[in-house]
Structure formats: structure tokens, C-alpha cells
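Pinned message: reference record for DNA 3'-5' helicase
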Amino acid sequence: MSPKFNTQQREAIEALGENVVVSASAGAGKTTVLIARLMKRILEDGVSIDRICALTFTDAAANEMKKRLLAALYEKNESDPSPYLTQQMMLVETSHISTIHSFCLSLIKDHGYLLGISDEMTQNILDPAMVTLYQKQAMDECIENWARLRRDDLKTLLKTFTARPQRLGPFFDAVMSVSKYFNSKHDKQESINFLLQTYDAKDFSALPDVIKTAYFAHHHLHLTLIKDNLQALIQSADGIDNQEELSHLLLSHYGSLKDLLHRIDNHDISFMNQVLDVLNIKIKTLRGQEEYKACGDRLAESIKTYIDTVEPISQSVKTLNEQAPILKLLVEFTIAYQERFQTIKKEIQGLDFDDFEHLAYSLLTYNDGVLSKELKLQFDEIMVDEFQDTNDFQDAIIQLISNGSNIFRVGDVKQSIYRFRGAKPSIMQSLMTDDHIKNIYLSFNYRSKEDIVQFNNDFFDEVLNLTSGMSYSDYDAVDTGIPSQKENTQPVEFLIVTDDVLYEPDPKYLPWDKDRNMRKARIIAQEVIRHHEMGYRFKDIVILIRGHAQKVFLKRAFEEVNIPHFIDDRGGFYNSTVVASILQFFKYVQDETDYSLANVLRSVFIGYSYDTLAQLKLHNPKSLYAGLKTFDKETFDLLQGIRHKWKHQDVVSCILDVINLNDAYHSRLSIQDKTNVDSLLEKAITYQSSNNPNLMGFMEFVNNLDDEKSAEAIPLSDSDDVVTAMTIHQSKGLQFPVVILWSMGRRVNRDLQGSITTDDLLGISLVDKVEPLNVARPSILKTLMRSKQDAEDLEETMRLVYVALTRPQERLVVVDLLKEYTEQLLTPSFLYSYKHLIELLVLPHSTHRRVAFETYNTIEYKILQPLETVDTPTQFVAPEIKRIETQEIDHGTFAFNPNFLEATAYGTTLHKAAEDLPQRTWTQEDLSGIEPKFHKALLGYNAHPFTQTLYEAHIKEQEIPFIYTDHDVIRNGIIDALYEFEDTIILVDYKTDNADFETLKQRYTSQLQVYKQALLKLEHSKSIQTYIYSFHNNDYLEIL
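Predicted structure (C-alpha cells):
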């Protein structure tokens, strides 16, 4: 074992024969340990990579793991070559190193026939936008069906969830919430039974145990906060002269409160009989005692907040019973909706993303788990990265493929920030206290300077231990791992800026803006300039924010002072300039209004300036359309031709028409614009597989996306010296020399504001509406859910803060703009009620932080000299070190196939058939399992004389992976077919391109030459011939 690993890392790498959980704090070298363990299992333990299943949570992480593993194997093979290492390198590309969703999909593709899932379904993965359309279709059909057959029940549901029957949105949301709740459960019927037990309970004792436990937890939490506030008031009173009687009275209240908490700890429901009496605390007024007054105000507020949730338990149960009929109708309707949605997916032969885990779980439990038993024997090692973000289904799948003692899990509960996607850190937390699991903690940070590391220890030790569900133990505290982290270390900086009400504009200082976010962005821009003046490059600096909304303000602030930046503001994919312009073309074709025409003419594809547009309007004030007809006849005719042509043309072709106007795609669009256009084309291809593939249908498809927030791809290279801004979620797994954190406020859980709330443990709650005014009030279930989810939100926020504060390597600055700043006491009460994160961050006593206070109108306003921009093509510069590359094929200039999606499935089917069907003359019976539309192409291939000659080869192989080095570059790929004769090897690559032979030769000669070189490395005694078989041309093309 290499000496570069510390004792904890070595233990993680070497542990065998038992399930292992590795808790790896930020910067602990988790990925390095994973690769080292993979190498150790392959090299020392002799476990072939095809007997290892390594699961990650992003494609990028899976690809990075493959890349690092391949590099490590290559380096080892260079120093100590062996056939085994060569074989392992060849297996990397097809190994089970993937996301858990990709692994689930592979199970469905290989074994889905057990559940009646066709190959076509596994090839047709629905775009989220298409899923939304089909969900609405299923919903509409269910409503129509109930309107015919169960009209009164439907009226009851709509009256419950919508103020007006014509507004179906709230009812749709309610059904989708219940559907999502059911989809998170392994056993739907079990969850329905749980709901019935809850709503049909006749008294408190009949409620499910989990709800009774939550009931006591809710009261315990609130009464504990009240107790802490009362204790603070007692301490304040003790410091005031001549108030012994007051202190004695408060201590009496304190004792009664402790007795109440003791009864709650024992789950004694009779505590409810005394709770209001115990909280009848009279807070005496003392003039001039500001600290005492503040403590009293906090106590009074905490008592009021709690009492608002208190009602007799008998009334709570009665309300549940009254809501039971509505709940049962809602469940019944939701089940009908789910069944209809599944039927629609079967009709269109498609799967959505949510099907992957459910179907994989069904396959593994089907027929007494026969597939599960097979996989238990197949895998010697199961590795799970980022385990803290696992959900129940994923954890169950992992256990179903394990032999019981071969799961190696790596994660960090403190970095579980995907609760909104169903992540359950409690799964990992439970394993960390399981005596049957080997737990290992990586407690050295190799990323951040010492001040940053120690501040984080100080902060999270004080704060996390005040929460009800998290802690920061000695295992979580970390030390720096290498001496250089102690050099040139700087304290964490907090910049708290307050507004001066009497603001007088001065060009030397920050300009005023009525929007607080804009003012805050300008402060951050000056911090960027300050760090740039210290010597940091712009690309060393990243701005971290909680959500995307702040990016717009950062863009404006950076542009004002000439800071080079790249900020994906996610204002909506369909609002990006180039995509919006294309959609305006579509809108113009439909409505022919001046508004649409103006946008079309101003677009990059036509290129009118504002002055030209103004001249057009002056030429004919009545309308732009009329003015264009006489002012610019050529453009007018062009647009009229497009309007007539597009009435009978598919969507993808329409998009291609637009982007090729004036050669805009190649000559006018930026890299980012091209990225967005390519993405729009992909979505259009997906749409064209729908039932209504025309422009009007596509516009409806777009409208249903609710301005999809697809992040734009970031077309940056390492040489681009620009500041970036990203959300904390986007930054996970990354590190930066300088991090400036846009301090955040408290998040409001909007999931609790609707007419229905769901919770993984507590089920489904409905709002109780009180007649006659139909005023909504929370039911006991909603109160418990709010209490539970508020605590979970706080814990998730603290984990989000942990991720943010552990990204920087050298400097960390936290910035906030407040109306006023008042120092607080770090108590559980304040933790659960703080409004500004920075007020919490500065509270723990730490020598590793520095707090600065400024007023907005005293911050100097610096403006950088604008950079000279040069529009140059992107170039790839090969690094000096040895590298790994996958062979790429030059497909020439951009020519997007409008039928790309269909062509891909067509090509996959033909490839698979050519490989799988018997190597002889085929019969109709051989083709019976293949759609008739493929028969002609396959029979043409099979009947070709050269195909029949190839069948006579004494060695025939399909799908042969290869890997070899070429001037320190690793080439790898997969050859479709090899036929070996006595003195000749013939290599065949199948192509389905709709192209002539000359085009095929231009496209694929370089690829076939790489394949030939791979064979020459292995075989020197026989001549090698390479051919393309073109299904389009029904003939072979030799590549010399």
C-alpha cells in the first residue's frame, strides 16, 4: 500500500469480508480512496472489474471514476505489463461503473421481458416535458370519466381543493402530490392501509405509532425552546437588584415546565391537561432593563407560537374522522390517474425517469427474487459513492444485489443536500450506529487552509449540536492533512454591510439601487476586485449563492465594473436569446402580428438594427408587415415562403431552416448559442415522437414546460480568466481558491402552504376548512408535518452551509446587506428562528474568523478597465502529461438529421439483429421477433454474397472491445464484427447513415484506421481488411 495514504484511508482501502461505511468529510480524499480500493481489488485481490458494481449519483462522477481507473491501470501496465491488466483496461468501458439510474435501466433492458417490458419501451425514455404532457392527458381523461360516472364525487373533490371548479390547477397539484407519495413507497397498499388507520382512528391510542411519536416530538421541541427562553429570562432577572421574588417565581415556572417535559418523554398523553396552565406565565415589566425585556419578548413569542398549535386531542381525532371520506376519494382518484398514466406510457411504448428504480426493484423481487439471487453471485464488490443521498428504493436495490457482506458505502451525512429529490440521510445515519457495519471516519482535510478548517470545526460543533437531528462529534471534526495548509492561512472574513437611511449619492462610493439584491451584488463585485488586486486571477474566484435568482443581479453588477464573468442565470432555457428568437419565428408563422415580426427581424438570423426597424415603421406607419413588403421585398418574400413551407414541414426541419438563414449557425452564433440550439433540436426530436408533431403542437409543448430551467452548458476552458457564479448545489464536489458566499436568509417551506401536504413518515394531511366562511386551519397532521419538516429544513440548510464553507482552498468571504445588525445569543431558540444566516455564522467564538462592519455608502466604487475581446475559435491544446482519449469521429459540418431519434433506434435494432441472428441464411421465423419495418434491410444484408462468405470464417466475433497506446495516447473502442480466415482477418463496421459511399468514406475512414491499428497490435501474421456495411446502400465499402 502506497505511503501517501493515511491510516484511516488505508483501513478503508483494505477492509474486506464485511459491509463498510466510510464517513468522508469534505476534502478528505474520498475519490482517491475509491480509485485506490478499486485498484487494490483488481490487482491484489484478483477481482475482475466485471465482478464489481460501482454506483455513483451523477454521470460526471461515473465518467471521472472510469477515467481515473483507466489511467491508473494504464500507468501500472506501463511499468509492469500483463495480459490481465490489458484485459481489465478493455473491460473499463463496459463495466458496471455508472449512476444508479443507469444501472437500473441496464437491468430493465436485459431482464424487462420478465415484466412484459418491450425493447422499444427501454429505447424510448420520455423527456420530462413529454411526461408533463402525458400526465395532464391522464388527468384530463380521469376527470372526464368521473364527470360521466361519478359526478357527485368529483364535485366533492373539486369543492375541497379549488375555489372555482374551472380552476383545476390546485386539484391537479393535490393529485400529483399524492401520486408522488405513493411512488416513494415499495408497497402502495401498505401505505393506503396506513392512511386509513390514521383517518379512521377513534382515539389517540388507535393512531399509528409513528404519528404518536411525532406528536410527542412536536410538543417536546416547542416546550424545550420555551424552557430555554425561560432560562435566559431567569438569568437576566438574576442580574437585576431586588428581584429575588421575580427570580423565585420564574424558577417555579421552570420546574413545572421540566415536569411537563418529563411526562412527554414518557409518552404520557395526560400532559395535555396541564400544558395551558403551565404556560400561563406572567412576565413582569421592568423599566430600563433592555436585556430582560428582549428575553421576555422572546419567551412570549415562543409561547404564542406553540399555543397556536395546541388543541384538545379529541378534537384533532374528530377532524381526521371528518376528513376521512375526502381522503378516500382523493386516494381513489389518484390510483385511477396512476393507472391511466401507466396505460398511456404502454400505448406509446415509453418509460419515464421515475420508472427506472421502480421497475428495477420489481425485477429484483419478481418470482421470489430469482434475478436478485443471480446478481448476488455475480458481484464480489458493490461500491456506492455519495451514499448520503440515497433514497429508500435505491438502498433496497443495493441490498438486493449484495451477498450480505460486500457493500462498500462512502458518503458524508453533513453533505446531504438533495432532500427535495428524495434523499434520506437517515439511511446512512442508521448504518453509522449499526454494530454489524464496519464504520471508518476520514478526518483529515487536504483542501482548505487551516483557518478555514478550524473555523468550520468551531461553527458546526456549536451549531449542529443544537439541532434535534444532527450532531458534530469528534469523528466529524477534521484536521489539516499536509503542512502547506498551515502556511499563509487567512481567517474567514465576514462583511456585514448596513444601509444608511440618509443616502447621498457620491460617484466615489457604491451607487444606490432600490433593489436590495442589486446593492448586495455591487458589494460582491467590489470584493472580487479587491481579491483580484491581491493577485488572484478572476478564474480563481467563485460566487456561491443559494438559488439562481441572484445571478441576474451579479451579471449586472459585474458588467457595470467590467469584471469578466460567465454566469448561467437560468432565466429559463426558452428565454435564452437565440432560443427565444427561434420561437418567435414559430409564433410569427401562427399569428403574423407586428410584435412577432419585429422580434423576427431583430433576431440574429435576419439582423435588423433598431434604426432599420424604425425606418421600416416610418416607411409605413400602419404596420411593419406592410412596410416590409415595400421596403425590403427580399426579406418579405423569404418570410412568406417560410410561412407557406412550414405549414407542411416537421418541427426539426423548421428549426434547421431558421439557423441556416444567412449562415447564422456557423458565422453568427456563439458557442453558448450553439449549445442552446443543439439542446432545442434534441427537445424537438423528442417532441416529434408525440401524437401531434406540428408547429402549433410544439408551441403548446413549450408552454407546458413552464419556462424550463435547464442549465445552459458552460463553454469554458481552463484558459478563460473569468469569475463564475454558481449555486451551492452546483458547487458540490468542487473546490476553488477563493469563495465569496452570498449570505442567505431563511428558506420558507412552500410545500406546507397548499391544501395538501405529504410526508414520507406521517402520510397525507388535508387542510381543515371551517364553515360557514370556509376558512382553512391546519389539521393535527399538518401541524406535526410542519414541525417535523421545519426541523428537517433547518438541518438541510446547515448541510448546505457546510458544503458552501468547505469549498474554498485559500480564502472565504461571507457577505450580507442588513437593515441593521444586532448581536444575538446562540441558543436553540435563535437557531430555529434566525432570519439572516450571517447573524448565525458570526456567533460561535472562534479565533479563525474576522468580522468587518461597513455602511453601504462608504464602500469605494472601483471600475476596471474593459478587457479587449477577441473572437477566436476554441482550440484544444494537448497537455504535456500522458492522456486518455476516446476515438472521436469527424462528422463534418453541422447537419442535424431531423429524424435523428428514429434513426438512432433504427440503427440500434439493425446492429443488434446483425450480431444476434444466426450466421446463415435467415428465415421469416428468424425475423419473427423483429418489427416488419426492419425486415427488408436485414434480408438485404443477409442475402448479400459477401455476407454469406463471411459466415464461412472459422472464427467469428461480435462487439470486440480494444485498447492500445498511440504516442502516449490511449485509444479505445468497440469493433462491430471480426471474421478470421486462414490468412486474412476481415473487420466489418455496420452503418445506417442515410448517405452515399463517398460521404461514408469521408466520415469513417479515420475511425476504421484506428480499428485496424488495434488489430495490427495483436496480429502481425495475417492481412487485415476493413469494410463498412451500409444498410442504406445495401452493400459493402472497403476502406483502404
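Pinned by admin. Summary line: The longest helix spans residues 313-347.
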